[in-house]
Amino acid sequence: MNDLNIAIASADKSRLDEIGLALASAKRRLRVTAMQCAPQRLGAMSSQLSQHAADILVVDCRDGDAGALPVLEQIGIQYPRMAMVVLSSCESADFLLQAMRCGVREVLPSNADGAAFHAAIERIAAKAVKAGAQQEQSGKVLAFASCKGGSGATFLAANLGYALAAQGDARVALLDLNLQFGDAALYLSDGKAAATIADAVQDISRLDEAFLKANMMQVRFNLDMLAAPVDPARGLEIKPEHIDALIALAVRHYDYVILDLGRNLDALTIRALDHADTIFAVVQATLPFVRGAKRMLGIFESLEYPPQKVELVLNRFEKDAALSVKDLESACGASIRRTVAHEPHVAEAAANQGIAVMKLAGGSCIARNLENWAADLLGKAPVEESRWFNRILKRA
Ligand SMILES: Nc1ncnc2c1ncn2[C@@H]1O[C@H](COP(=O)(O)OP(=O)(O)OP(=O)(O)O)[C@@H](O)[C@H]1O
Ligand SMILES: [Mg+2]
Fold it and tell me: Torsions phi, psi of 331, nearest 5?
């Protein structure tokens, strides 16, 4: 942590000035943003924290006023890497304990001076460096490729992203790398993306976490998506080195980076595939898809990807289909570990409304397939198993 972004929140303008002055005398380069807002109302202003990519939030609480703590707890869940510092002249053990339980890192006296801030900031920075070193391992890159157009690759990429994010606090990024005809945003939002990948990489020297986030659409607190350009011509501005920079940055800040690729395997797509830990090649149970899958697996082989990097996913699975899973496996020469049910009414409703299947139709077969897939990636028990276990626990 060198330059730190600090947000200060206080209902009182003169307090903001006072705290700003004290921070200015702390011996560190700080970028300070003042937010005039009562601590209890911070929830409504929390998007400003991501805009400013705050590393530390300093909250001016009135003496012994614990009312703001539940709000801070929510903010802490939303921004797990941001440290929260509370200023309060109440030093009761009860207040301190409650504050720490709500995720507050430091409680300083209301009249804390530059030296007190300096010491607190150094403690926070030292902890962050340690955590950063432990976290040096980067997020997993999961790429989705269509063995033939219309396989459902984009639908699965978007909905698996949602399923991964919904099962806890894993940070997930969905990058739409179908640069000519990308439509991943449609599966998670009914609004138009304000910015796209073309804006994010326009000036590659500016590309950092804050700039990337500012160009993404936040689907939920731990799921961001970078949309494809609306104008295919802007897609042509994107070069393979942009893809390298984008993915390298994303894996540093997200636990899962999901790439939705177009159906063309061009230089750019291959560059993205090179970064993938796993490539999900999506097929359906018909002969044209089998042909597409064989061709695609052949290309992956010639790119010298190890076989375990590629997983065939059977989408729109129906038990009584003319081609069984076994038939498909022997025709493609690869095993199929994952299937997702054919449920047109569910898929259509979700796509038409721009809502993730798990949110719109949590009990559907597609939702269960995706939940289990996500649980497997997260190293958790399959969903049915954990529900059954919880039921037993409740009865005991
Ligand atoms: N399991 C499913 N059951 C029913 N319909 C599905 C399922 N999965 C996807 N679909 C539908 O299939 C259509 C095509 O999906 P999608 O856009 O994801 O395909 P794609 O492989 O990304 O296509 P492209 O190659 O054009 O990028 C969508 O209308 C989607 O709602
Ligand atoms: Mg697609």
Answer: -70, -35
Is 7 touching ligand 1 by the criterion CB < 6 Å?
no
CA-angle at 302, arms to 298 and 306, nearest 5°: 90
- Report whether residue 263 contacts ligand 1, using a CB cutoff of 6 Å: yes
Residue 146: nearest ligand to its CA? 1
Whether residues 71 and 179 share a domain: the answer is: no
pLDDT along the chain (396 residues), means of 10: 82 93 83 90 80 86 77 84 88 82 88 89 79 67 95 98 94 95 94 93 86 94 95 88 92 96 85 94 96 94 92 97 96 95 98 96 96 94 66 62
152 lines ligand 1 (CB under 6 A): yes
CATH code of the domain containing 176: 3.40.50.300
Residues 128 and 146 occupy one common structural domain: no
Q: What's the confidence (pLDDT) of residue 384? A: 67
Residue 381 confidence (pLDDT): 76
Which atom of ligand 1 approaches the CA of 146 most closely?
Answer: 21
Shortest-distance atom of ligand 1 to CA 157:
18
Domain boundary among 90, 114, 134: 134
Angle in degrees, CA 156, 161, 162, rounded to 5: 100
State the closest ligand 1 atom to the C-alpha of 149, by its place in the atom list counted from 1: 25
The CA distance from 365 to 362, in Å, is 9
CA-to-CA dists, residue 164 to 71, 305, 348, 368, angstroms:
25, 25, 21, 12
pLDDT confidence of residue 223: 97
Q: In the prediction, which pLDDT does 63 show? A: 66
Is the same domain home to 129 and 219? no
Q: How open is the CA angle 105-110-114, to the nearest 5 degrees?
A: 80
Same-domain pairing of 251 and 128 = no
Q: In angstroms, what is the C-alpha Rg of the chain?
A: 24
* Dihedral sign (CA 346, 256, 253, 249): negative
Range of the domain at 234: 140-395
343 lines ligand 1 (CB under 6 A): yes
Query: How many separate domains does the chain show?
Result: 2
Helix (H) or strand (E) holding 101: helix 93-101
| 191 Cβ closer than 6 Å to some ligand 1 atom | no
